[in-house]
Design goal:
Number of helices: 16
Number of strands: 22
Helix content: 25-40%
Oligomer: single chain
Radius of gyration: 21 Å
Low-confidence stretches: 319-326
Distance between the termini: 12 Å
Strand order of the largest sheet: 8-3-2-12-11-1-22
Length: about 500
């Protein structure tokens, strides 16, 4: 018997995979596994089984957990002159960014381990069934939409590094795939089938692990067999804070996105909103919050102290290191039973190295400057990396899930989520109006605003540049959102900035 529910995601076939599992009687967590597997096909540059993921879950029994399946630093280092680690520059259209790729950029991957941990704790139907939608997409083809075409174009130089990724995304005439093309991934389909038979040990202890770590040793990486064998998903309590009559549950320390979100929201909760969001006063308030956020100590230790000052208790956490345009995607699922899950996943930009015969691109988290503020190769050994990712849930006064949301967007993740929550919880907007509403962000001395705000910024903004965009942009995230209405109906919005979609069962 099918399970009624809703999925919001960043690609039509990604959302379709989740609804297929709800149709088969699975719960929201079963559907999340199928959706994530499908995202690894449809959103290749944003998600990978060899990347990192956070699952924020709330069960029908009222239990809440963060499944931290993010990447970890290796347990050993080697001389830098032995490491394959080199820069790639990408052009976002007026803005360029440099990141590092190669075997030396690969951190210990967590996404696949997280899938198996979620299935073991909360899944209800066999993994072989959950694999089937992604398997079908990989064999028959994933449709390249406008947003994925943009993403592939941005990372084209990286996609050309390895023959396996080049075969997927570069056509015989040496041109990049276009919008409307179908990308088939037969090797990934075969790998999924093998996972269904052999389980996660295939990746973390078996043939794939041996090949990956052998190549790492030979080609200039840090990964060892023990790094893969010893990787564990960490299950934590979420960071929880009150906002008016609601409770927000988000990703906590050592990741920093959720704590920054909590601190931003703390600056909003005691104010009145008898003025319009496009009013000068509102823009001034947002700017002052962003300016404060730019100045705070963003280390996990510093954020812990700031949270305590605001009366927000931070759950215990393991020490970790503490962002870019954002090769990250997000999706949400709720079901009629009261289960809810928000999932944010990333592969960095990809390392350029494909696991032989699997169709899986390895991450480049050790090549992300934003994750290593003290410089490349400054990482502590065997330490869970920090992240800006902040999948979030909102509970109402009765303790039921009211909203599920999150986004990609690197350093803009907390402020993008904050502004959607602000529009819903403070202004009372419906979620479509809240998600579509104009966003702003302050970073590196520039205050960026989408159209729809008070425009005479010369009277507001002092000592920084400001940039008024002529249209909404994926730069400000893709806050796909689900809202439970007071009558119990589930409604969803896929953020148009990142080609979001909604599917219901």
């Amino acid at each position: 018997m099918k399970t009624k529910g809703i999925v919001t995601a960043g690609h039509p076939q990604t959302a379709w995979a989740g609804t297929q599992i709800l149709e088969a009687g699975g719960n929201a967590f079963d559907a999340a596994i199928a959706t994530l597997l499908a995202a690894c096909v449809n959103e290749f540059c944003m998600s990978s089984l060899a990347g990192g993921t956070f699952f924020n879950v709330f069960t029908a029994k009222g239990e809440s957990y963060i499944f931290d399946a993010f990447c970890q630093t290796p347990s050993q280092k080697r001389p830098v002159d032995e490491v394959q680690f080199y820069p790639h520059t990408i052009d976002f259209g007026g803005t360029t960014e440099e990141f590092q790729i190669g075997m030396g950029s690969i951190a210990v991957p967590g996404t696949l381990a997280g899938i198996f941990s979620l299935h073991e704790k909360l899944g209800t139907i066999p993994l072989k069934v959950l694999i089937e939608p992604a398997l079908e997409i990989a064999r028959t083809g994933s449709l390249v939409d406008d947003f994925q075409r943009f993403d592939y174009a941005v990372l084209e130089s990286m996609l050309r590094v390895h023959p396996d990724s080049k075969a997927l995304f570069i056509k015989p005439d040496n041109s990049l795939v276009e919008e409307g093309d179908q990308v088939k991934m037969p090797m990934f389909a075969d790998f999924l089938e093998a996972l269904g038979r052999e389980g996660k040990d295939l990746f973390y202890k078996g043939e794939v692990a041996r090949k990956l770590t052998s190549d790492s040793l030979e080609l200039g990486g840090f990964l060892s067999y023990q790094d893969l064998e010893n990787y564990k998903t960490i299950i934590r309590k979420p960071l929880s804070f009150k906002h008016r009559n609601n409770t927000v549950l988000t990703n906590g320390l050592p990741s920093i996105g959720g704590p920054i979100l909590a601190l931003a929201m703390s600056k909003l909760k005691d104010k009145r909103y008898d003025y319009s969001p496009d009013d000068k006063q509102h823009v001034q308030q947002l700017f002052s919050i962003f300016e404060w956020l730019e100045q705070i100590d963003r280390t996990p230790q510093g954020l812990s102290q700031l949270l305590a000052k605001q009366g927000i208790n931070s759950p215990s956490w393991q020490t970790g290191n503490s962002s870019k345009w954002g090769s990250t995607t997000h999706f949400n699922i709720m079901d009629e039973q009261g289960n809810a899950v928000a999932v944010t996943t990333s592969n960095g930009e990809g390392s350029g190295y494909m696991l032989e015969g699997t169709g899986v691109m390895m991450n480049n988290m050790l090549g992300e400057a934003a994750l290593l503020p003290n410089g490349f190769h400054s990482w502590e050994k065997a330490t869970r990396l920090s992240s800006m990712m902040a999948p979030s849930l909102v509970l109402n006064e009765e303790g039921l899930v009211k909203m599920v949301l999150g986004t990609g967007g690197a350093g803009r993740i907390p402020t993008a989520i904050m502004q959607v929550l602000h529009y819903v919880l403070d202004y009372g907007f419906d979620i479509e109006k809240a998600v579509d509403g104009a966003r702003s962000h302050l970073q590196h001395g520039t205050f960026d605003l989408e159209p729809g705000f008070f425009e005479d910024l010369s009277t507001i903004v002092k000592a920084v540049k400001y940039s008024q965009w002529d249209k909404n942009s994926m730069y400000f995230g893709g806050v796909h959102t689900i809202h439970r209405l007071s009558n119990g109906e589930l409604v969803g919005v896929g953020d148009k900035r990142r080609s979001g979609v909604v599917r219901k069962v």
